[in-house]
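Quick look at the format.
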Amino acid sequence: MSTNLHDAADQFAAVWSLQDTAYEAAPALQCVEIDVLVDLLRAAGAPSTTLTDWLDAHALSDPDCQGHSARTSTEPSPIT
């Protein structure tokens, strides 16, 4: 199967934008993993409600989490 990056990003955003997916998978992820996933979803064009779903689902499952700020930029965060 040959897929270009744009098509793959569209498909990724569509599959991982389901609210049920966020609430099922987020409890298994650490803070840094949620941040990277949200950045990737944002870059792939996922709607802002999807980003909020992932952040909310993670916050519910991680009482030690200090919170995450949903950046308003559409650019992914730089890797440092």
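Next, a different chain entirely:
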Amino acid sequence: MSAREKAKATVEQVVGRAVRRIALAIGHRTTAAKGAALEARGKARRIKEKGKDKLKF
């Protein structure tokens, strides 16, 4: 299941970054903020998964 969570993290980061950049380009600040939040959630998920991998014996 950890591989699935890592994939989710990567997808969230990529989609969030794309949404943020496109929204900024067309001037939608609210959507850009949502994209940034999605990207941050993906980064947090990635950090969590890395921590779980370090704790495995």
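The chain has two helices and no strands.

See the schema section for token definitions.
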